[in-house]
Design brief:
The complex is a heterodimer of chains A (221) and B (204). By secondary structure, chain A is mostly helical. Chain A has a single domain, classed as MetI-like fold (Orthogonal Bundle), CATH 1.10.3720.10. Helix content of chain A is 84%, strand content 0%. With 204 residues, chain B is an alpha/beta fold. Chain B folds into 2 domains: 131 residues, Rossmann fold, CATH 3.40.50.300; 58 residues, no CATH class. Chain B has a 5-stranded parallel sheet with strand order 7-8-9-5-10, with helices on both faces. A 3-stranded antiparallel sheet of chain B has the order 4-1-6, with no helix packed on it. In chain B, a hairpin with a 2-residue loop joins strand 2 and strand 3. In chain B, helix 2 runs parallel beside helix 4 and helix 3 runs antiparallel to helix 4. The longest helix of chain B has 14 residues. Chain B is globular. The two termini of chain B are 29 Å apart. Classes of the chains: A mainly alpha (221), B alpha/beta (204). At the A-B interface, helix 6 and helix 7 of A face strand 7 and helix 2 of B.
Chain lengths: 221, 204
């Protein structure tokens, strides 16, 4: 084992190193790229599935397969299809998509039918229905999906990088730490991943809360 | 134009209104008319189909057979049996949400003042009492442009004095427009000064 002091010392030596930040940027861009893609497609697919039962039936087995297949299998498969540089985008996408899709679909299906009827009778436009009825009801599901998805995509994304070892990634640095038995490095990078993941999670959830508050017009109509 | 359920002005058995829920028949060979610009109070025991009838007029239920005439191109406003307010939004936003730019600030404030809600306009509806939420629902129905006002037990939960104020306001605001009220309360129906249609007697 390694002492917290040794880990802290290692972190302090890493912090001024530009390659430390480049590795974080490399992995963060790809992992968050996969997350963003999954969030976008997950929301669109959930809207489609809520609207069309056939589409929902088609999506169900696909989502189940993605949810149950081991990450390692996907990583190895993906290495046949993509370059290792894009690996974490794909893996991050696969981790987040089912969570976003399932949560948003659930949120839409649970939308208060009494409010939907009210909107229908008063002839609310689609824009108003989304703003006043759907968004507030789906928001807690979206927030929860993002909170879970953000943690998972970092876990799975860096695991994929450790297997694929793309140049300049956090995964490569972890792999190096393992090969050269550099325990302080391993812990320093682990702490870095945790901190970056938590900061990004807090930032995205804070932005989501701002969107929610704006939608509810807090401070304005 | 008169609103006709189960056919137009003359009863036609082929157009008669039928509605069943499973094996339970709510309406069979039913027909009625709601004269334009008048108040019609629908009374009857629970389960007689008052709400079903109102939902059908709102387009939320379809009859198994029969038709409705006279609602083409008409704007409907409603106070539902439940408040159906937008949770998480203020009173003002609840009113703006249905009015589509047609809402006049002065009129809104006037109606809110009569119902004792003016100072609550920027508060979230969730913090309002049950009676206040009911009044917001009434206010919303009166502010939206409409030709036909449907009221499904709209004054439930209001104390006598507030009920009296609300009824007076509804009659003033909806003057000249068709009102269909569903209620259990004979006194309420009397105060609305409309014709009474008792579904118990009608359906036997």
């Amino acid at each position: 084992m390694v002492s917290p002091v040794a880990v802290s010392m290692r972190l302090f030596t890493l912090l001024p190193d530009p390659s430390f930040w480049r590795s974080i940027a490399f992995s963060a861009c790809r992992i968050l790229g996969g997350f963003g893609l999954a969030a976008l497609l997950g929301i669109l697919a959930a809207v489609g599935a809520a609207r069309y039962t056939r589409f929902r039936e088609l999506m169900a087995p696909l989502v189940s397969v993605i949810k149950t297949t081991p990450v390692a299998s996907f990583v190895i498969l993906a290495l046949f299809w993509f370059s290792s540089r894009s690996l974490s985008v794909f893996i991050s996408f696969l981790m987040v998509f089912p969570i976003v899709y399932t949560n948003i679909l659930q949120g839409i299906l649970q939308t208060d039918t009494q409010l939907l009827e009210m909107g229908q009778v008063f002839g609310l436009s689609v824009k108003k229905k989304i703003r006043y009825i759907y968004f507030p009801q789906v928001f807690p599901y979206l927030r929860s999906a993002f909170a879970i998805g953000l943690g998972l995509c970092w876990k799975a994304g860096t695991a994929a990088e450790v297997i694929g070892i793309p140049d300049g990634s956090i995964g490569e640095r972890l792999q190096e730490a393992k090969i050269y038995l550099q325990m302080p490095d391993l812990f320093a990078w682990t702490v870095t991943i945790i901190v970056v993941s938590l900061l990004i999670e807090k930032l995205i959830l804070w932005l989501l809360d701002i969107i929610d508050r704006r939608n509810r017009g807090i401070g304005k109509v | 134009m008169t609103v006709g359920i189960g056919g137009s002005e003359k009863y036609d058995r082929n157009e008669a209104y039928h509605k069943k829920y499973g094996d339970f028949t709510v309406f069979s060979d039913f027909s009625m008319e709601i004269p334009e610009g008048e108040v019609l109070c629908l009374m009857g025991k629970s389960g007689r189909g008052k709400t079903t009838l109102l939902r059908m007029l709102m387009g939320l239920e379809q009859p198994d057979a029969g038709s409705i005439n006279g609602l083409e191109g008409k704007k409907i406003s409603v106070v539902f049996q439940e408040d159906r307010l937008l949770p998480g939004f203020t009173v003002r936003q609840n009113l703006y949400s249905v009015c589509d730019g047609a809402l006049q600030q002065e009129r809104m404030m006037q109606i809110l003042s009569v119902l004792g809600l003016a100072e609550w306009i920027d508060r979230e509806v969730a913090v309002l009492s049950g009676g206040m939420q009911r009044r917001v629902a009434i206010c919303r129905a009166l502010l939206v442009p409409y030709d036909f006002l449907i009221l499904d037990e709209p004054f439930r939960g209001l104390d006598d004095k507030t009920k009296e104020i609300a009824i007076k306001l509804v009659l003033e605001e909806a003057k000249g427009r068709t009102i269909l009220l569903s209620t259990h309360d004979a006194e309420e129906a009397k105060m609305m000064k409309g014709k009474i249609l008792n579904l118990d007697a009608f359906l036997g």
